[in-house]
Amino acid sequence: MPEHHTPKRPYLRLHNISKTFPGVKALSNIDFDVRLGEVHALIGENGAGKSTLIKILAGVYKPDPGGTIEIDGKVYNALTTRESMHHGIIAIYQDFSLFPTLSVKENIAFSEQIESKGWLVNWRKVEKSAKQALDNLGVSIDLNVRANMLSTARQQLVAIARALVYDARILIMDEPTSALSSSEVDALFQIVDRLRKRGIGIIFISHKLDELFRIADRMTVLRDGLQITTANAQEMNRKKLISLMVGREVSDERMLGKNDGEVILQVKNISKKGNFEDISFDLRRGEILGVTGLVGAGRTETIQALFGLNPPDSGDILLEGKKITPKSPAEAEKLGIAFVPESRQTEGLILQQNVESNITLPILRTFANRAMRIDFKRRRRRAEELIRQLDVRPSYPHMETAKLSGGNQQKIVIAKWLATNPKVLIVDEPTNGIDVGAKNEIHRLLRSLADQGMAVIMVSSELPEILTVSDRVLVMRQGRVSAVVDGVSASQELLMSHSVQGGHHKEQEAAHE
Amino acid sequence: MNERIKQTLKAKEASIVIMLLVVMLFAWVMNAAFFSFENQMDVIKSNAVLGIASLGMLVVILTGGIDVSIGGQLALVTVLTGQLMADTGFDNLIVIYLLGIAIGGVIGLINGLMISRLNLPPIIATLGMNTIINGFLKFYTNGAWINQLPQKINDFGMVKLFSVPGAVGGAVGFPIQFLLFAAAMLITWFLLKWTKLGRSIMAMGGNRVSAERIGLNNKNLTTFAYVFSGMMAGFAAITFTSIMKSVDPNAFIGYEMNVIGAVVLGGALLSGGSGSVLGTFLGVTMFAYISNGLTLAKISTYWQSIIVGSIILLVVSFDMIKLRREARRMTKVDIVPIGSGR
User: Fold this and answer.
1) What is the b/e burial string over B150-169, where b = at least 16 CB atoms within 10 angstroms of the residue's CB?
2) Does the beta-carbon distance from A101 to B341 stay under 8 Å?
3) Which residues on A lie below 8 Å from B332 (Cβ)?
4) Alpha-carbon distance B322 to B304, whole Å?
5) Which of A4, A27, A84, B296 is the most exposed place for a label (fewest CB within 10 A)?
6) In this complex, which of B4, B199, B214 lies closest to A121 when CB atoms are compared?
7) What is the rounded radius of gyration, in angstroms, for the C-alpha atoms of chain B?
8) Among partner residues A81, A100, A478, which is closest to B215 by beta-carbon distance?
9) Are B232 and B259 in contact (CB under 8 A)?
10) At CB < 8 Å, which residues of chain B contact A?
């Protein structure tokens, strides 16, 4: 636990900050402050409001009227990018915002040059500032190398050095360790500690609880745009933190199935370098297997492997006892595996075309005769059947898809694949961006498909959704299966503890339940 | 300093030099006259125009854009200034040059504004511009050449530096066009290396989002690049007129491919942010040697287009494959191997 240093005063203080987007309240009445010389961790699930908060601090978003932002004694209603920077609030985004084709030194000293007088570049000054900033961090990097030739860890150091040249007072680090190896994380933490001792306030965003307890002085937990708590790190522990992160309402209604069908899909030790490692699980007819984990845990990559979009390097996939190696979506589809992608608008639908052509697209061939002429009457009948079966509204086959609501669009994407009569249906974030009522309908739909004997895999980062429909839940973390949990006994706390690093200590046993 | 030399050698320019040597060797094998002083000077003279235009294109390509109206711009400037000189006998070289640069700059400004303010894709905006210019020129000239140019212009194109009497008669020396190309290179190099404007263009071309976050004005930077390209096209156009001693309104049909090709051969990435004046010089030289070598080898000009086009596609494909590999390397999140201590 980091000990206390020089007396700390709040340099930055948010009071009663809210932010509303059309239809969503992203932040509600946040009171958040950062002192110089502290590491203040910001924690929350995906969509809790962390990035909205950061964008308000960086001057990218304007908060709703009624709140104030106080920096170094000056009070603002909203910041501009420039004001934010002039007060030394510097965000290091996950992509580092470097200029890939410029040299290290120029990247570090770029804004200093731009804001200096005259129209020429003072290369000697560039070199001096860059060297000084890197010295301050206690690292040495070749100043003349192009930024895109550096490793991720070194690019991050360049981004931090650049913030020092800006004269950063508050440094915002967004998931700074997500792409680092563990020794690189150690090195980064030494630097963070060094910055803290120099009196820089750091807002540290991470999902990895172990790391947070190593580095943070204070912690603020956000959930659904609400500030759940702000507390000293010493007063916190893992269990408490996890329960604060997930305390979201779960609908009482659990739609669980019988879960006694025969095994249809077996995944045995599949691995793909840089994507996922040693994944094994079974899937039964009539069951819904929930797959969850934090963003970047490798869920989507793993699921895409089953559908041929991301073939594994090693391991076996067995469908009805036979080994399959789908190399493309078309192959997977022929085998009886259907995939409903996450971004339905770009990957799942042709928005300009009508409902009928979208629904029948995967099975268009079946309406064609030898001369490749399409039997439009038969196509219309089949489309109407599917529309009725899934209760798409309005139920006009000739309706332009773009004009339907999100929930109904999602039904069409599902309908589209149902038309192929799949044995295994995979859905990725099926209710992303859909309102509550429509969510419920989609859940019912998935359940009824499972009851009809289909095997369903549902990937979702919304734990309540996972709990509502999953017969079993597979939790992933850092490309591995961290646990398989029975749907009846699962709780949000349990799932979250398996999702975050260091959240659960018996993970190895759990993985082989 | 030593570090810098090492880095330069590792850089793209090194591989271009090797390719260049291969081309030269080929040209020499096909015709021993390739290395003769006269032939070398001829190559310089006839490619200064391509070189100057390519420098403007380089700046546009650095922003991640492209200017396919460069042929139209060159033709427009040659025709308008040529007509003026033929009609009035006006022969002040400096004013003619400035006029040409201004005309090119205005066309560039229109291109730049369409692209940065109306968000038109560069290829569409400049393609449209090219079509309009060519249509206008057909209407204006009826395809006829302009021949009655002032003597002063024609003489200027013949100027040789350090000239000594040649063996066969006439003078032998460095053509003035070499000096003009060198001046254009110096200006562009200075812009890109030493001015904030130039560095901002390089930065923006590498990553537009970062540029915006740091407070650069992407719209103005983009506009400037097209204006610069237009001005260089104007400069090149007058130089061309002085070499040819006449104006052919159709001389530059399809010329944009040569210019883009030279810049791309010179190692500039079409995705922006990467490219250099030295590289472009080498690219132009290579382009010049390839066509000169093919001519010396008595290969039909039709084949020249096919060969040059193929080389360009090859180089660009190679870049794209490399880029994709790099992107893949950058985006994948590392997975910590088991037992690496948590």
Assistant:
1) beebbebbeebeeeeeeeee
2) no
3) 274-275
4) 27
5) A4
6) B199
7) 22
8) A81
9) no
10) 3-4, 7, 193-197, 199-200, 202-203, 205-207, 209-211, 213-216, 273-274, 326, 330, 332-336, 338, 340-342
Per the structure block, which two tokens stand in for B275?
A: 């490219």
Task: Give the count of alpha carbons within 13 A of A269, CB side only.
Answer: 2
The CATH number assigned to the domain with range B33-162+170-326 reads 1.10.3470
**pLDDT tens series, chain B, 342 aa:** 455 555 555 566 777 788 888 888 888 888 888 888 888 888 888 889 999 999 999 999 999 999 999 999 999 999 999 999 999 999 899 999 999 999 999 999 999 999 999 999 999 999 999 999 999 999 999 989 999 899 998 888 888 877 777 666 566 778 899 899 999 999 999 999 999 999 999 999 999 988 988 889 999 999 999 999 999 999 999 999 999 999 999 999 989 989 999 999 888 988 899 999 999 999 999 888 888 888 888 888 788 788 878 887 887 787 778 777 766 554 433 333 333 332
Task: Name the token pair of A461.
Answer: 């980062």
Phi-psi region of A286 (alpha: psi -120 to 50; beta: other; left: phi over 0): left
Domain ranges of chain A: 11-88+169-179+196-247, 95-167, 256-336+422-513, 344-421
Q: Peptide bond preceding A422: is omega within 30 degrees of 0, i.e. cis?
A: no
CATH number of A256-336+422-513: 3.40.50.300
Residues of B in contact with A150 (CB under 8 A): none
- Would you list the domain boundaries of chain B? 33-162+170-326
| Nearest chain B alpha carbon to A118 | B196
Q: Closest approach of chain B CAs to the CA of A1, in angstroms?
A: 16
Residues of B in contact with A298 (CB under 8 A): 335
Same fold? A11-88+169-179+196-247, A256-336+422-513: yes
- Span A11-88+169-179+196-247: which CATH code? 3.40.50.300
Using an 8 Å CB-CB cutoff, list chain A residues near B215.
81-82, 85, 111, 114
